[in-house]
Amino acid sequence: MAPDKDVFSGGVAVVTGAGSGIGAGLARRAGALGMTVVVTDINEASAAETVAAIEAAGGRAEAEKVDVSVPGELDRLAELVFDRHGEVRLLINNAGIETVGNSWEVPAARWEATLNINLHGVIHGVRAFVPRIIASGKEAWIGNLSSVGAFGQMPGQTAYTVTKHAVQAFSECLYLEMELKALPIHVSAIVPGMMRTNIFNAEAGEGEPDNAAKHRRAMFEMMRDHGMDLDEGCRLFLEQMAQNRFWVHSQPEMSKQIIGGRVKFLQEQIAPIMPDIARQIAVD
Ligand SMILES: NC(=O)c1ccc[n+]([C@@H]2O[C@H](COP(=O)([O-])OP(=O)(O)OC[C@H]3O[C@@H](n4cnc5c(N)ncnc54)[C@H](O)[C@@H]3O)[C@@H](O)[C@H]2O)c1
């Protein structure tokens, strides 16, 4: 039996940003494996769509509107889930946005949204849920959405890159905190390469500077044409999490290449390395 069919065949899964993309894919996969899935998203209608898809496939799911950029909403969610179910076996801190624009041109509100959703959303997901998971005494798995962007530098996506480097560092420290305390909570950094989702859709760029549109469009087309199939990627993610792996990849070769560049950068203390595509899609 594949380990995910064993480890995630029951219990409760909570996924943030599960109305679309990777969050929706992970929620559907957890539902298909037999978990009761709490599908959360800032967009209530899209969360309901994911729930409908899980139920149509014979699974169990419930939708909750949650904005991860507000710490109190994650406290409310944790309280609600533990009141209702008394446990959480799988927590996926997934909700995230891309932000395109030169660092000095991204408006303050978009900077704040990026940091609050991508970084604080993960931190406060852990802060709200972990004490309750510990009190339940049950084994649990936490996956935080990092990125291959956590290991490189991408001009024009600085706000996003900053948050992913930070989520990676947060996940590494969290893993060690669990080890020091000998807690039965397995922490994974989920590192997608390039998966076909809505993160670069034009409407998701509202609040970015006008000159970001060309870069956003080029990324959208690249993901549409070369992105990995979502269901396949999400199947791989849960399979690796079920093996208690810290590193969880969709495209291990892509991760290896980018991490290799980072290792060279750090070891040789050279100047930041320009990614191949960066000049072609540079923000004006
Ligand atoms: N798609 C990729 O190739 C890729 C690569 C690396 C990392 N990631 C990461 O995967 C995660 C999911 O991205 P995706 O590509 O599936 O994007 P997506 O845009 O398809 O889905 C993101 C979901 O998050 C929700 N969301 C946005 N703001 C929110 C908020 N404040 N509170 C709650 N939900 C909110 C959106 O409504 C949407 O349903 C992100 O953290 C992203 O950085 C994606």
Would you kindly provide a brief summary of this structure?
It is built from 9 helices and 7 strands. The chain has 284 residues and is an alpha/beta fold.
Can you tell me about this structure?
The chain has 284 residues and is of the alpha/beta class. The protein has one domain: 3-Layer(aba) Sandwich (Rossmann fold), CATH 3.40.50.720. The chain is built from nine helices and seven strands; from the N terminus they run αβαβαβαβαβαβααβα. The protein has helices spanning 3-7, 21-33, 44-56, 71-85, 108-136, 158-180, 213-226, 230-242, 252-268; strands at 12-15, 36-41, 60-65, 90-93, 140-145, 185-191, 247-249. It has a seven-stranded parallel beta sheet, sandwiched between helices. Helix 2 (21-33) crosses helix 8, helix 4 packs parallel to helix 5 (108-136) and helix 5 (108-136) packs parallel to helix 6 (158-180). The chain is globular, with a radius of gyration of 18 Å. It starts with a helix and ends in a 16-residue tail after the last helix. Nicotinamide-adenine-dinucleotide binds next to helix 2. Nicotinamide-adenine-dinucleotide binds at residues 16-17, 19-23, 41-43, 46, 66-69, 94-97, 117, 145, 147, 192, 194-195, 197-199, 204.
